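Note to self: keep these together.
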Amino acid sequence: MKKIIAICLISLLISCADDRPTANALTDFLPKEPAVILQMQNPDLFFSNLQNNDFLKLNSNHSFYKDMEQGLEILKFFPHKKEALLVLNTKGEESFDFLFISKDELKPLNLDSIPNRQVETINSDDLEIKKYVLEGKTAYSTRIDSINLLSNSLQLLKEASEGSHSWDPDLETAFKAASPKKTSLFFNSEKASFFLKDIFPARFSNISKWTVLDTDISQNDISLNGITVASDSIPRLINVFKEAGTAKNNLAKITPVHSKGFTSISFKKFEKLNNNLTFLRGSKTEAFSDELSLLETASEAGIIQLSEGFVFAVHAKDPESARNSLSFELKPTEEFRGIPIYEYPNPNAFQKMLQPLLNPEELHFFTFLNSYVLFAKTSKALKEVMTAVQDELVLANSEAYKSASENLSSEASLLIVRNNQANDEDTSNGLDYTNFPISAIQYIYQDNFAHLHSILTKSAALKTEKPTSRAAAIKLGAALNSPPIFFKNHRTNGMDIAVQDVQNTLYLISPEGKIHWKKEMDSRILGDVQTVDILRNGRYQLAFATKNALHVIDRDGNSVKPFPLKFRDEITQPLAIFDYDNKRDYRFLIVQGKEVFMYDRKGRSVKGFQFSKAGSDIAQTPKHIRIGRKDYIVIPETSGKLNILSRTGKIRVVVKENLEFSENNWYEYDGNFVSSNTKGQIIKIDEKGNIKKEDLDLTENTRINATAKTLVMLSENELTIKGNSVTLDFGLYSAPQIFYINNKIYVSVTDLQAKKVYVFDSNATLLNGFPVYGNSLIDLNNADDDPALELVVQGEEDEVLLYEVQ
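Structure:
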């Protein structure tokens, strides 16, 4: 259990995919006895989520991780754009060979750019095999019909190329159970000892033969769900639960919160479980009538692992019947908190009855506690459990366990829970579990197989109490092209995050840090990604312009017809979107130098728009401003001319004077068109074209922002909001941003030099918990279903940060 996550995460270290072919074509080329198989529908997306998982980041230098990375290093030179199978075969106890099966053409990417390379062709048994030696790593590849094979072992490649090996029936069952929409991990416990030796306690490492796990990885959680298969032909540990039934696992209710964890087995018919254990062992144990009677009154038994020693617990359905089942004389040795502790006369009875499932040896003391009968080697261990239960300091009451339990069934044949904070480095195999206090795995038996669920989750109980706390950090693998923004999720009624990197890849990310999808764009996005609903059905799309196209993309990453609209000439300003009457009858404005083109929501050119060309290049994105009941379109030119137009593109306000435009946009404020000039003066133009220049002793590089009733100015380090001023530390600040949320004004500025984000209220009072770390403009909104706001911003150059603002 300790490293159940590591197999699936590291085996996928260097893969990518998009399309999904039929699985059978790939599985025909599996070798005869594979140890581990990774079936990848979309490896690229899965790998991105892997990179961003906090637990995996903590353990990226672990020896197992490094061994896997080194063994698969050559894969990074090859493309992976379609579904693939990654097969690992053990050779010896500490090494492995790999086989990569794909419909991609497996030729090295940019071969000429690899400094140390050798390529040769080998003809063997009617196969043409390419041998690649790249940066000291060797791999062999061949193609059979539409299937491509790549391996570091020539022998393994040849074996796989023969195809159509007869399948192990258990593996066939596992493949049928795997989800076609997830990355699935298959492992053979008989062959994968190199991978499994630190995952399970020794007695569970061979619980069955084939196991398949569907993976679900976000930034804070790793969830694995699947089945483990064991036919009746060979005795397997999982089959001891056959026909025994399941009951609730309640051991967490008596497990001390600082314990190392517990192992729980549940049953409805202990007699059946006992018979199955006897069959598995191959011989009967001596009769322990009292212990047998006790377990037949129970629904659960298990071991609580303490910092020193352990407690064996039996959960009775009827406490009185449990007490009466013990026919030997009860001999009290002491009393603790009013509860007698007794001497136990059969120290190894339960061990002999329950091995190899449980190993509760050397039990010398026992007590009755509520509906439980507790046994231990020392009375000290019993007292530790008794104290925890009476003080209600038990694992079941912790937020960490509650959070993990949400992903588990309440009833399982076998449940193993580990308190990672209470285990030392030796028992953690060098893994770092900081902020991941609980890991759990459970098996639920059903007809020669068992459902398997495993969870490792970041605990809410460990979140900082600071009013503004970091909720997620997502590494993209490439630097950001522009600040991240929130995008409305009509399915959850919350917000996702959209961002593009410098490689022109657009991402959609959940508030939990899980990457929904990645899409390669033709070029960088100009300006912000905006939210529209062009179908008017409450399902939102992303709209933006790139160098030569106008895009509208739905939340699944697909273009919405008839978009994209493509242009021969370069688009020179970010996309402008007007929704005059808030009826979602959008107008999209494209700027190309001096020209402006307007399109409706169906991608058709709006013929009634009469402003087609300016006298000089257009300096800013056209802006829609409404004053009273009148709509205006503001288009500034590099010559200093300001065009204030009507909806139809006719001049509506004549501005007679050429202006020295600053970098600031134009806004409506107090019934006027407002911006600033290069001298730091505030320019106000009324609806009749009268110009007023206000000298407020501002610097030339003053940045402004405004709404109808709020004017914000940032001059050097002096921030003024609605006439209220605050002096900031000297720095290099972004333009101020205004957010109007729940009838409140929020103003944000970012010190790009110190990488600090500040958020103020309308009185220029800094919100509690700020500044926070950030390196761009921000977006602020309520992204989930709690009252707190969320803030998204760039962190490091390739990082998106999400904060929760109380």
